[in-house]
């Protein structure tokens, strides 16, 4: 009996201590919140802290706290040190300042510490190097001063040490950690020589300091060895100079040649080349002419159905006489630019492999032709005959989002900023949401960045909608690219749905955020299966590394980037019924654009 009472009391003590630990974690989190604010920390204080945004528990203790880009500001209070089971702490991209508080010394389970992108100052405290479990330490883009402690070597599991863009001075200690894979101390005030053990790291990891030694220039003044030059060396230098000069000349010539050709290259899906549109292979001189003979022309014009007049009236005759230029081979056929006169151009899309009957085609085109919204590229007209199926669209001179994102990545490229990208996302979302709302069950079927065309003010117009149910994708289209956008449940390209559109749109958002082109995971293309890649990276707490480098320079909007990323991840859920409707996605992006514009105005 005594024994039972004894064990019961032990059990109660255990229970009490377990719940009081979570209570202590809770108290620490509440203290943190009231000290650094953050209007985004809408924690429901009457529910368990484990359900709060950014908090993750294991065995009734807080093990992860991730509050990236939450607008936290001010100095960290003495509080986080009470979360003694914490393994991951991420406070990156906030506006926190002051020193790292001393109670961090008690975070002995900490594995990942992400404090980059704040305004932390003072020295990097020595006690950080007593946290034996640390694997990733990112203190980059802060205001840390002082030197880098040699005690770094005590962290035997350390894999990442990012210290770039601080005010660290002195020399780099002899860091000999075999585990260290990622290392960066660039843009500090470090001097002296780079330790041998780090000489294998890339040059860019050391730039912006007064350092010397491998991989940078050698430390012993190279002037000494240069003072006595042999004749052979001089000859070598002269030859070298001549070679370099001619190389530069060749490069310049190449660059100039490319410049002149750049305009079309960046805009078009494929390099544009002048070509005549020859229909049904008849050997007639006219660009678009051919097919039925001239005596059947009245018949041809009957086959031409015009939905809405362009700023200029045109009929088939005009198209036939137009000078044409190949714009590119798309999924369902080749697109040509037909210039009706100097100012007016239209795009003529020639469908290959139309799989439906004439009646079905015409019925479907009636639906497609009725679609009219400012974020769509409307169908102006179509032409249907036995041999030819043509669609006529407005010409969009700025080309596609795909060309804008992936074309001309080298020097001279204008970076695509957050405002432009988020507005493109919003425009595309509105266009697609309109398609979904206009006709029951209507879906685009082929959402991808090369089908998002842009006006000169970078307004997004969705094109090519409704073609997936009319035609079979041609063999000349790039199937891998298409597959990269295709929802996992879609096995037949014609059996599409609105939820499959939402998936493709999610991939498009990921493409906008990461700058990476999606391809199917099974292909060995240079692209990636974006949803899977992003999910794996985000799970490993590398969110910042997901984003396009061009976006990372806009740190004040990281919060919104993370929000858009979350929307994209929701859209690319594996199961269709887990994906939100396009209308909901659109209003979320609207809200996000509104807040981020407001923030820019406030600044
Ligand atoms: C942290 O824990 C100590 C000791 O248990 C306690 O006195 C202190 O109030 C706690 N701090 C916070 C912010 O919860
Ligand atoms: C907060 O949590 C409690 C308990 O879980 C719940 O009843 C309440 O509705 C929640 N309040 C809000 C605003 O979500
Ligand atoms: C919490 O952490 C576990 C293990 O790391 C992970 O599987 C789970 O997805 C996390 N939950 C949340 C809400 O982040
Ligand atoms: C670490 O925790 C111990 C025991 O809870 C406590 O006495 C000590 O003050 C803490 N250290 C710091 C720096 O807060
Ligand atoms: C870093 O500190 C200096 C003064 O020491 C201050 O002028 C500067 O604004 C700080 N930088 C940041 C990012 O807080
Ligand atoms: C690192 O290890 C060395 C040698 O064991 C020890 O002298 C030093 O105090 C340690 N540094 C820290 C910060 O624990
Ligand atoms: C590095 O800079 C410090 C001052 O910041 C100076 O005292 C020291 O001599 C310098 N060391 C070398 C090797 O130049
Ligand atoms: C180091 O950081 C700088 C500045 O952010 C960056 O330009 C460079 O590419 C980085 N290098 C490595 C190897 O991480």
UniProtKB/TrEMBL annotation:
GO molecular function: ATP binding; protein kinase activity
Main location: membrane
Residues binding ATP: 349
Region of interest: Disordered: 280-299
InterPro entries, per the entry: At_inactive_RLKs (IPR050994), Kinase-like_dom_sf (IPR011009), Leu-rich_rpt (IPR001611), LRR_dom_sf (IPR032675), LRR_N_plant-typ (IPR013210), Prot_kinase_dom (IPR000719), Protein_kinase_ATP_BS (IPR017441), Ser-Thr/Tyr_kinase_cat_dom (IPR001245)
Transmembrane segments: 233-257
One GO location term (cellular component): membrane
Subcellular location(s) per record: Membrane
Superkingdom of this protein's organism: Eukaryota
Keywords noted in UniProt: ATP-binding, Kinase, Leucine-rich repeat, Membrane, Nucleotide-binding, Phosphoprotein, Receptor, Repeat, Signal, Transferase, Transmembrane, Transmembrane helix
One protein family per Pfam: LRR_1
Protein kinase domain span: 321-592
Region forming the signal peptide: 1-20
Gene3D superfamilies: Phosphorylase Kinase, domain 1 (3.30.200.20), Ribonuclease Inhibitor (3.80.10.10), Transferase(Phosphotransferase) domain 1 (1.10.510.10)
Name this polypeptide is given: Inactive receptor kinase
């Amino acid at each position: 009996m005594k024994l039972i009472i004894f064990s019961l009391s032990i059990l109660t003590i255990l229970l009490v201590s377990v719940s009081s630990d979570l209570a202590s974690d809770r108290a620490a989190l509440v203290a943190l919140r009231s000290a650094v604010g953050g209007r985004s920390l809408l924690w429901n204080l009457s529910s368990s802290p484990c359900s709060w945004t950014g908090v993750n528990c294991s065995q009734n203790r807080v093990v992860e706290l991730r509050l990236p880009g939450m607008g936290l500001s001010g100095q960290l209070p003495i509080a986080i040190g009470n979360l003694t089971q914490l393994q991951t702490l991420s406070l990156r991209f906030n506006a926190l300042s002051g020193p790292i508080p001393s109670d961090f010394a008690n975070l002995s389970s900490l594995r990942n510490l992400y404090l980059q992108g704040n305004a932390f100052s003072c020295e990097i405290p020595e006690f950080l190097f007593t946290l034996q479990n640390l694997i990733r330490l990112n203190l980059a883009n802060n205001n840390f001063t002082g030197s880098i402690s040699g005690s770094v070597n005590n962290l035997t599991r350390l894999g990442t040490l990012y210290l770039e863009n601080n005010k660290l001075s002195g020399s780099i200690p002899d860091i000999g950690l075999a585990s260290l894979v990622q290392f960066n101390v660039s843009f500090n005030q470090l001097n002296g020589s780079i330790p041998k053990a780090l000489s294998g790291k890339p040059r860019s990891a050391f730039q912006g300091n007064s350092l010397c030694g491998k991989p940078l220039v050698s430390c012993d003044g190279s002037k000494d060895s240069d003072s006595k030059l042999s004749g052979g060396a001089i000859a070598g230098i002269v030859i070298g100079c001549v070679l370099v000069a001619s190389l530069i000349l060749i490069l310049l010539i190449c660059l100039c040649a490319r410049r002149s050709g750049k305009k079309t290259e960046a805009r078009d899906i494929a390099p544009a080349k002048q070509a005549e549109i020859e229909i049904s292979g008849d050997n007639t001189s006219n660009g678009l002419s051919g097919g039925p003979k001239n005596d059947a022309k009245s018949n041809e014009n009957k086959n031409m159905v015009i939905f809405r007049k362009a700023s200029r009236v045109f009929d088939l005759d005009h198209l036939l006489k137009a000078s044409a230029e190949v714009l590119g081979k798309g999924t369902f056929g080749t697109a040509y630019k037909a210039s009706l006169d100097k100012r007016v151009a239209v795009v003529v899309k020639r469908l290959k492999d139309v799989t439906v009957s004439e009646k079905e085609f015409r019925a479907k085109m009636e639906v497609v032709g009725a679609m009219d919204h400012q974020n769509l590229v409307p169908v102006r007209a179509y032409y249907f005959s036995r041999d030819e199926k043509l669609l006529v669209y407005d010409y969009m001179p700025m080309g596609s989002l795909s060309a804008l994102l992936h074309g001309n990545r080298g020097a001279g490229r204008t970076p695509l900023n957050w405002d432009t990208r988020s507005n493109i996302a919003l425009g595309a979302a509105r266009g697609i949401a309109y398609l979904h709302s206009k006709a029951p069950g209507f879906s685009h079927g082929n959402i991808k960045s090369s089908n998002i065309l842009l006006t000169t003010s970078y307004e997004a117009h969705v094109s090519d909608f409704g073609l997936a149910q009319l035609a079979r994708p041609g063999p000349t289209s790039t199937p891998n690219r298409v597959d990269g956008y295709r929802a996992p449940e879609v096995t037949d390209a014609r059996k599409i749905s609105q939820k499959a559109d939402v998936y493709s749109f999610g991939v498009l958002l990921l493409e906008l955020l990461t700058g990476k082109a999606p391809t199917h995971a099974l292909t060995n293309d240079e692209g990636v299966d974006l949803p899977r890649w992003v999910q794996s990276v985000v799970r490993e707490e590398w969110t910042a590394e997901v984003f396009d480098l061009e976006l990372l320079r806009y740190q004040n909007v990281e919060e919104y980037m993370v929000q858009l990323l979350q929307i994209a991840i929701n859209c690319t859920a594996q199961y269709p019924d887990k994906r939100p409707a396009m209308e909901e996605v659109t209003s979320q992006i609207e809200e996000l654009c509104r807040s981020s514009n407001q923030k820019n105005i406030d600044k």
